[in-house]
Design a protein that fits this description.
two-stranded antiparallel ribbon; elongated; 17% strand; Phosphohydrolase
Length: 93
């Protein structure tokens, strides 16, 4: 039996995506659910196409994130970040 939805793997144990800043060429890191990060070298915001994390399409995403916090699988800070991403994603549609 799963402790949480198996689709939430990218939230619970996100992979790190390493790429280069298109402005200065410095190496930057994204968690797979990140859609933008600030380059630590030049300070510019770098965007990438979001992966299709379950939070973007699952109707239970908000409840799932709250459940992951209750189970102490993710921190409140991570939950806030994910809920903010979800809100911005929905507003962009």
């Amino acid at each position: 039996m799963f402790r949480y939805c198996p689709g939430a793997r990218s939230i619970v144990n996100p992979q790190i995506i390493i790429t280069n800043c298109p402005y200065c060429g410095a190496e930057i890191e994204f968690f797979e659910y990140d859609i933008e990060v600030k380059c630590l070298n030049c300070g510019k915001i770098v965007k990438r196409n979001p992966s299709q994390s379950c939070i973007f399409w699952c109707n239970a995403a908000v409840d799932c994130i709250k459940n992951l916090v209750a189970l102490k699988v993710i921190s409140d800070d991570v939950a806030e970040e994910l809920l903010g991403l979800l809100k911005r994603y929905k507003e962009s549609k």
